[in-house]
Amino acid sequence: MTAAASEVPVALVPTENATPEQLVARAIKGDRRAWEALVDLYSGLIWSVTRQFRLCDADAADVAQTTWLRLLEHIDRLHDASRVGPWLATTARRECLRTVAHRRRVVLTGEEGDLDRADIVQSEVDAGLLAAERCRDVGNAVAQLPQRWRDIMTLLTADPPTSYEEISATLQVPIGSIGPTRRRCLRRLQDLLEL
User: Fold this and answer.
1) What are the C-alpha distances in Å from 127 to residues 80, 118, 193?
2) For position 94, what pLDDT does the model report?
3) Poorest-confidence range of 71-80, 101-110, 160-169, 172-181?
């Protein structure tokens, strides 16, 4: 190349004659044709990397797309723009490895019944968690009640339930006041639990 040709501004060099370094410089500035030239120049390289990993077409396409996205995100930080090809190949390999690792985590099953059983187990776990949460909420609400009401509710919910006569004797309250106190207590609990 002559000295005069090397002094031609990068933007004036036709895309098809530009070096990878010049294409990167133009792509950084937003030149769409430079991007297209980079894609034309290095697509085959990226696809050959995906073939080495024997990825299915959909995964290979995802890897290629992600590789180009990584270049878009990091193009202005390339240390040596002339080595954009090796950078793309390395990035494509890393994306292939991520894809392969992700595929290994997916466990396929041949029996439809196995999937149904998993849903049943999951709903049992969910039901247990919800029941524990409800218990905790009720316990917190009961803790906000006056002490006398808590004592009455504790005895009424004992297993086996305590009779009104035993509650009256234990707490020194008239039998006739236990029912109305229980109703007020339940209304108050309902209000606390709806908050």
Assistant:
1) 58, 14, 19
2) 94
3) 101-110
According to CATH, the topology of domain 141-195 is: Arc Repressor Mutant, subunit A (1.10.10)
pLDDT of residue 33: 93
Higher per-residue confidence, 114 vs 43: 43
pLDDT tens for 125-142 read 666 777 888 888 888 888
What are the extents of the domains in the chain? 8-105, 141-195
3-class DSSP string for the chain: CCHHHHCCCHHHCCHHHCCHHHHHHHHHCCCHHHHHHHHHHHHHHHHHHHHHCCCCHHHHHHHHHHHHHHHHHHHHHCCCHHHHHHHHHHHHHHHHHHHHHHHHHCCCCCCHHHHHHHHHHHHHHHHHHHHHHHHHHHHHHHHCCCHHHHHHHHHHCCCCCCCHHHHHHHHCCCHHHHHHHHHHHHHHHHHHHHC
Half-sphere exposure of 52 (CA within 13 A, CB side): 15
CA 78 to CA 57: how far, in whole Å?
29
- The fold of the 8-105 domain, in CATH, is Rna Polymerase Sigma Factor; Chain: A (1.10.1740)
